[in-house]
């Protein structure tokens, strides 16, 4: 039978030591015991038909930061993987609070008319950005989507530069020419911000190819890794499959990070894809596929550590499906009337920031007061970012044609050597070329 052949092909993966090789069924236990996954039952019924043997979960890597509390793990290497120090805990907390506070401020500024075009916020998904990006080196690359502000912040682009970009000001990270969906910073190796879905995946694959080429052909000392972030809806797009193929074929140092927030605008993930378990597409191309609770930054971090390490060691790509949820509408223009209030309420109880805070306090990594002082510091940083953006100048008209033509002479620049757009009559009627 075709389905059992498929089940046979999907082999257990070596990406994560927490998935027990001694107990191959532990992954299915993890899934069924999990209080997570609002979509769990539906996902399961879909897969019962696809794989009646139940072997479909063989490649799921079950990771659990819960075990940290009990410290009951026998393998010391796994324990070492799971533990976070106070400094690490506070770094994760600060980054997630920064992402959340920044996005909340964006909503305010958008409704006050300070930003233009579509603005897509990241609230609820912070554990994914933080869990992955805080493990990177500056030289590593990140490729994002239109929901990109928080990836930029996690990668170290200063909040004032991101806010200024959103305000369309010259002090923004793209000098005001990109806006919300096109964050880019050469200095931080943030390669965008892409408005077309799936558009960033080939760019990320190319960046990973560059690293491999530098290392293997040019013999440079280069172990850089690229992270490609994209959504569940994007996984139905051809570029996703083409890039998985190339990445596996050439063993590229890349991690494909799917932020499965269960929705693509108003289209449910379960209604739009033949097999909702996206992680399974990894093994189909010969790379590890992992499903992780994307509302738990420690679990995400653990999986990320393995995948990034694997890429850095030259062992090839991984596909990580982080199941998460966005707490706001698709964009700030979306009234968010399609999603079931019960589903929203379910995920609201799983707020990744509240969960980390609880973990930090319960494990005595830091006190409530210490966390409050981080929140206060972030609030000040965001206020300062808004002031900075507000006071920054708008780009000059001549900037309109920069980065549009390799040589703007003949179009943007007239015979007198001046930018045509500087002529006050430039926008009256059709400019003569
Ligand atoms: C090539 C292309 N087709 C269609 C769109 C319109 N579009 C914008 S967002 C979106 C849904 C993407 O959903 P998902 O990948 O799950 O990301 P999320 O918004 O949930 O983060 C679509 C279809 C687009 N931007 N690009
Ligand atoms: Mg989505």
Automatic annotation (TrEMBL):
Protein name listed in UniProt: Pyruvate dehydrogenase E1 component subunit alpha
- Catalytic activity line of the entry: N(6)-[(R)-lipoyl]-L-lysyl-[protein] + pyruvate + H(+) = N(6)-[(R)-S(8)-acetyldihydrolipoyl]-L-lysyl-[protein] + CO2
Q: Say if the entry is tagged with keyword Disulfide bond.
A: no
One molecular function GO term is:
pyruvate dehydrogenase (acetyl-transferring) activity
- The answer on whether this UniProt entry bears the keyword Ribosomal protein reads no
EC number(s) per entry: 1.2.4.1
Which Gene Ontology BP annotations are present?
pyruvate decarboxylation to acetyl-CoA
InterPro entries named among the record's database cross-references: DH_E1, PDH_E1_Alpha_Subunit, Pyrv_DH_E1_asu_subgrp-y, THDP-binding
Going by the UniProt record, its keywords in alphabetical order are: Coiled coil, Oxidoreductase, Pyruvate, Thiamine pyrophosphate
What is a single Pfam family found in this protein's UniProt entry?
Answer: E1_dh
What is the documented function of this protein? The pyruvate dehydrogenase complex catalyzes the overall conversion of pyruvate to acetyl-CoA and CO(2). It contains multiple copies of three enzymatic components: pyruvate dehydrogenase (E1), dihydrolipoamide acetyltransferase (E2) and lipoamide dehydrogenase (E3).
């Amino acid at each position: 039978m075709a389905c059992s052949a498929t089940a046979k092909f999907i082999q257990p993966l070596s990406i994560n030591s927490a998935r027990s090789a001694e107990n191959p069924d532990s992954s299915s236990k993890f899934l069924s015991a999990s209080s997570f996954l609002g979509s769990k039952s539906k996902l399961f019924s879909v897969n019962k038909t696809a794989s009646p043997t139940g072997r479909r979960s063989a490649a799921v890597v079950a990771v659990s930061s819960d075990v940290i509390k009990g410290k009951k793990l026998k393998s010391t290497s796994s324990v070492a993987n799971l533990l976070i120090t106070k400094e690490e805990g506070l770094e994760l907390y600060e980054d997630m609070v920064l992402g959340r506070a920044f996005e909340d401020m964006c909503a305010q500024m958008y409704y006050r008319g300070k930003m233009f075009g579509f603005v897509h916020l990241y609230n609820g998904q912070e554990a994914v950005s933080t869990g992955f990006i805080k493990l990177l080196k500056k030289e590593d690359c990140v490729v994002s989507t239109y929901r990109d502000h928080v990836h930029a912040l996690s990668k170290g682009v200063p909040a004032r530069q991101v806010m200024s970009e959103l305000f369309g000001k010259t002090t923004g990270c793209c000098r005001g020419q990109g806006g919300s969906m096109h964050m880019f910073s050469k200095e931080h190796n943030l390669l965008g911000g892409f408005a077309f879905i799936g558009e960033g995946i080939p760019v990320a694959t190319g960046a990973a190819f560059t690293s491999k080429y530098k290392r293997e052909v040019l013999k440079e000392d280069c172990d850089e890794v690229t992270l490609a972030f994209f959504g569940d809806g994007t996984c139905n797009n051809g570029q996703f499959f083409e890039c998985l193929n190339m990445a596996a074929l050439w063993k590229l140092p890349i991690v494909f990070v799917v932020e499965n927030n269960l929705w693509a605008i108003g289209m449910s993930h379960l209604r739009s894809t033949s097999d909702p378990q996206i992680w399974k597409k990894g093994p189909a191309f010969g790379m590890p596929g992992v499903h992780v609770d994307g509302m738990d930054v420690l679990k995400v971090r653990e999986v990320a550590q393995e995948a990034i390490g694997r890429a850095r060691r030259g062992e090839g790509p991984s596909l990580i499906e982080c199941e998460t949820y966005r707490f706001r509408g698709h964009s700030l223009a979306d009234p968010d009337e399609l999603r079931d209030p019960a589903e929203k309420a379910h995920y609201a109880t799983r707020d990744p920031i509240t969960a980390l805070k609880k973990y930090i306090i319960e494990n005595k990594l830091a006190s409530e007061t210490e966390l409050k002082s981080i929140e206060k510091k972030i609030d000040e940083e965001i206020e300062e970012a808004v002031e900075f953006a507000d006071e920054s100048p708008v780009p000059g008209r001549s900037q309109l044609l920069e980065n549009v033509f390799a040589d703007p002479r003949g179009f943007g620049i007239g015979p007198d050597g001046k930018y045509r757009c500087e002529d006050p009559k430039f926008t009256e009627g059709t400019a003569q070329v």
